């Protein structure tokens, strides 16, 4: 296995509104190359990460020199990925991340990225397919729309054939061609956020996040991770409650969840892949013109599993009372910051207990 590290001379991140929001996060862009589409039979041969480290811009590639070294490659990659809170991919929800999950399971490696959030640019662009002048949604097609032209001239499928040749003859020119393909995939990925300039009213990507929940443990080492979506537009206020609905995705088989507690209700249907959380608001009148609505974060977590404290990597220690809105103006930033922690803890506690 080889790790190739590059310090970029220029800032690779555009200055559009979506990228500026991403830059506020502890993020990385990710892209992988594999020997095929079967998660169980094929291998990861190359992983690319693009990230910011202090004032520097870094691109890192993990290359599989020998098929027997896949476990070592994944272990090094997981150690690095665990340092980030937000991952941005292109079709990563359907391919890259599930592929990595399966390969780590095959090697009995822990992939418990409990605070990892995920933006799949492909999923967001696909929603606009009726309005974009695109014949398909392949990465290179979107790049051409944005005026991005590569040096690399191979496809992902061709890189598989080249990798087989490299394993046989160790020709460094072949290896460099594979590396260049992945390098440009990941290097140009931040520029793909520019496609949303076609839709000036597009909501911020950071306000529509996929959260990953680890459902593996010593007792259940082979469980898949569950992904749930929390969108800004799915947060509603009604009858002194804050209500959140969203979609989930999991390969595991689980029972429904229906919780009715003093301060919150939660329901989840794995068949419909949908959840709903209702949290009761309390009200304080600060002065004749200011009414604050809040809930007690700590009491809810205690009701879930007697947690004495809650940690969220993006926030550090979370206060007990969370102000959700003032005079009925919803604090979306606060909601997006703390409510996923509640949902994650519910899934971990009640899905484990249902096994």
TrEMBL record:
Entries under SUPFAM superfamilies matching the protein: Ribonuclease H-like
YprB ribonuclease H-like domain span: 28-191
InterPro entries xrefs: RNaseH-like_sf, RNaseH_sf, YprB_RNase_H-like_dom
Gene Ontology terms, MF aspect: nucleic acid binding
Cleaved signal peptide residues: none
Pfam families in UniProt: RNase_H_2
Name listed for the protein in its UniProt record: YprB ribonuclease H-like domain-containing protein
Species whose genome carries this gene: Isachenkonia alkalipeptolytica
